[in-house]
Fold this sequence. Notes:
The protein is mostly helical and 100 residues long. It is 42% helix and 8% strand. The protein has a domain at 8-58 and 86-99: Herpes Virus-1 (2-Layer Sandwich), CATH 3.30.40.190. The chain is globular, with a radius of gyration of 13 Å.
Amino acid sequence: MKGRNPTAKEKRHxxxxxxxxxxxxxxxxxxxxxxxxxxxxxxxxxxxxxxVLPLCYQHHREGTFNGLWVSRHPWKKExxxxxxxxxxxxxxxEDLINEN
Length: 100
């Protein structure tokens, strides 16, 4: 994948985010679900590695669009309609990180 390598501080942040588990699954009342890191603004912009969401494989990149779940890739519009915008989810993730 293209992008800038994360700094040590960015790596620590992404590790904290990943420890939350999938934010969508969490919002649906599920216990911890292992996740991938989704960069909401790509990986090359300044602070890009701080603007990340924890999403499980199904909600991140499986490519699914059905009654159970929608993957962010390639279905961003439907994903945000169902689960909230990436900015709303990012705010929630930041609040959870700051609580710990």
